[in-house]
Design a protein that fits this description.
By secondary structure, the chain is an alpha+beta fold. The chain contains 16 helices and 23 strands. The protein has three domains: about 20-145 and about 410-525, GROEL, domain 1 (Orthogonal Bundle); about 150-215 and about 375-405, TCP-1-like chaperonin intermediate domain (GROEL, domain 2, 2-Layer Sandwich); about 220-370, GroEL. Helix 8 (about 265-285) crosses helix 9 (about 300-310).
């Protein structure tokens, strides 16, 4: 990048090797990258969506249908493409499901914008139109939503099942949906008439080696640890649980002290003293009435021996997150000094037992009084199966929680998107100026969802959209695409139900990121610091495609 000075000498502002894309070229590159990302996940949408197999640089495999997982594993380089990955991540953290939908909408908005830019409509005009359309869309989708409460288990089950349709967990979806709903309802708390759900309280453990039907919900905590000594009891009823964040070991001295031992009797005294210190520690635990001990740090071999003599079940090096969950489920306090351990710090569980699951020992803490924390043990035949079922269950739990927090649901199958498109086209006529073209473009982009559902099912997308539009015009707001029969039917009657939050979040984040990408007319990329490939743009930024992201994926 250089300017001209009065002396006719060029002035260099950017370092050598920096690359710059400006004007329409920059917009075209960014839009191309965003479209490429959307096209990658497109084929996974809906009940007939297919899965992707991703192999990373180490040769590890991930097989998934989950939009955000695909994009995270893909290692995207292009800056505009990265912004679409952000959309998926936000959708995942806010709602837990609908990541593919969000990315497809964002990609379509940009694709539609490209056509308008080619007609010489200014990007800020498009952005303004998109903003109006976004607000109208949210208004429409709120209007067609119906209420749902925590007691409406039937609807919540349908939401969980809809979230899992099209994933490999589908075979056991009835069974898994019940567990997911159970888990969310257990941890839900009502605050000033508002349902509050902290999904950190639903812990999902996964173990391969059994069929999916053996997935279970424990009203309490599963700790992926084994007892430290085989002499300890494997089952403790009416357990009094102590949670320690302190090592049961004799510490080294902080200062550099040397202990000189000159004859064997002194050595004997030293060993005995060390033993006595450990014995005292264990005595303190026993005196408090503890019968089960979870320690976040280490437990010395000698201490293990004393604990098992006293019949206490103990586990060591328990994760901090598990300790917090245990505290919530059992009502115990985490104690950081042994001298402070009192009866009042202990938690209670009706049953603590060690079970062998898939070749590993795990400790189940069950029958807690008011389990504000629950665990789900997800099973599957192989490692990859378990991983994908885990992701499906996570989507289901996220969907149920999102539905309860907002308290509203909509039909699925592309019905809300078709209704929004219909209303936006009416709304466009009331918007003056060139913005109305952008509002119409937004409507087209919304229809990409039912279109993609139809395409993935091998149906004629145009026929489906035409029929769907006429149904919506006639006032059937919940009609969508039944991909199994290739017909336009009432999605509510088919029990295809999604939380409102999936739609509102997807529309908001997609529209906002599309606006942001549209406003970019200059991409300045610094040269690589290492002086690697002669500087230049981030790889793949010249051709608008990240490396290895050709569409043959």
């Amino acid at each position: 990048m250089n300017g001209q000075s009065s002396g006719g000498q060029p002035i260099f502002i950017l370092p050598e090797g920096a690359l710059r894309d400006t004007g329409k070229n920059a917009q075209k590159q960014n839009i191309a990258a965003a479209k490429a990302i959307a096209d990658t996940v497109k084929s996974t949408l809906g009940p007939k969506g297919m899965d992707k197999m991703l192999v990373d640089s180490l040769g590890d495999i991930v097989i998934t249908n989950d939009g955000v997982t695909i994009l995270e594993e893909m290692d995207v380089q292009h800056p505009a493409a990265k912004m679409l990955v952000e959309v998926a991540k936000t959708q995942n953290s806010e709602v837990g499901d609908g990541t593919t939908t969000a990315v497809i909408i964002a990609g379509s908005l940009l694709k539609e914008a490209e056509t308008l830019i080619d007609q010489n409509i200014h990007p800020t005009v498009i952005a303004r139109g998109y903003r109006l359309a976004k607000e109208k869309s949210l208004e429409v989708v709120n209007k067609i939503a119906t209420p749902v409460t925590i007691n409406d288990k039937d609807t919540l089950n349908k939401i969980a099942m809809t979230a899992m349709t099209g994933k490999s967990a589908e075979a056991a979806k009835d069974f898994l949906a019940k567990i997911a709903v159970d888990a969310v309802v257990s941890v839900a708390e009502t605050n000033n008439g508002k349902v509050v759900i902290d999904l950190d309280n639903v812990k999902i453990e996964k173990k391969e080696g059994a069929s999916t039907d053996e997935t279970q919900l424990v009203k309490g905590i599963i700790v992926d640890k084994e007892r430290v000594h085989t002499g300890m009891p494997a089952t403790v009823k009416d357990a009094k649980i102590a949670l320690l964040d302190v090592a049961l070991e004799v510490k080294e001295t902080e200062t550099d002290a040397q202990i000189r031992i000159t004859d064997p009797s002194q050595l004997q005294a030293f060993v005995e003293q060390e033993e006595k210190m450990l014995k005292n520690m264990v005595e303190k635990i026993v005196d408090s009435g503890t019968t089960v001990l979870f320690c976040q740090k280490g437990i010395d071999d000698m201490a293990q021996h004393f604990l098992s003599k006293k019949g206490i079940l103990a586990a060591r090096r328990v994760k901090k997150s598990d300790m917090t969950a245990l505290a919530r489920a059992t009502g115990a306090n985490i104690v950081t000094s042994l001298n402070d351990l009192e009866k009042g710090d202990l938690g209670f569980a009706g049953l603590v037992e060690e079970n062998k699951i898939g070749g590993d020992e795990m400790i189940f803490v069950q029958e807690c009084k008011s389990p504000k924390s629950v665990s789900m043990l997800v099973r599957g035949g192989t490692e990859h199966v378990v991983e994908e079922i885990y992701r499906a269950v996570e989507d289901a739990i996220g969907g149920v929680a999102a539905a309860l927090e907002i308290g509203k649901v909509v039909a699925g199958g592309g019905a809300p998107e078709a209704e929004i498109a219909k209303e936006l086209r009416k709304f466009a006529d009331t918007v003056g100026g060139r913005e109305q073209l952008a509002v119409n473009a937004f409507a087209n982009a919304m229809e990409t969802i039912p279109r993609t559902l139809a395409e993935n099912a091998g149906l004629d997308a145009i026929d489906m959209l035409v029929e769907m539009r006429s149904k919506h015009e006639a006032g059937h707001t919940t009609t969508g695409i039944n991909v199994f029969e290739g017909k336009i039917t009432d999605m509510k009657a088919l029990n295809v139900i999604e939380p409102l939050k999936i739609k509102t979040q997807a529309i908001s984040s997609a529209a906002e990121s599309a606006e942001m990408i549209l406003r970019i007319d200059d991409v300045i990329a610094a040269s690589k610091l290492s002086g690697g490939a002669g500087g230049g743009m981030p790889p793949g930024m010249g051709g608008g495609m990240p490396p290895g992201m050709d569409m043959g994926m």
